[in-house]
Amino acid sequence: MAKIKVTKRRSAINRSLRQKRTLEALGLRKIGQTVEHDATPNILGMVNKVKHLVSVEEA
After folding, report:
1. Secondary structure letter of residue 10 according to DSSP
2. pLDDT by residue (tens digit) across 13-24?
């Protein structure tokens, strides 16, 4: 399974509750924090919902 690194780049202030919860579900709390996930359809869908707040790279 491919791995991806997701880094939080922008704040969740003034974002919808759904976007805030998606960031929490990805394990992202602070700006600049990076987490590694398997590139499953569930994770990729979550990243797609908050793509304007995060950056993604293959690991």
Report:
1. S
2. 999 999 999 999
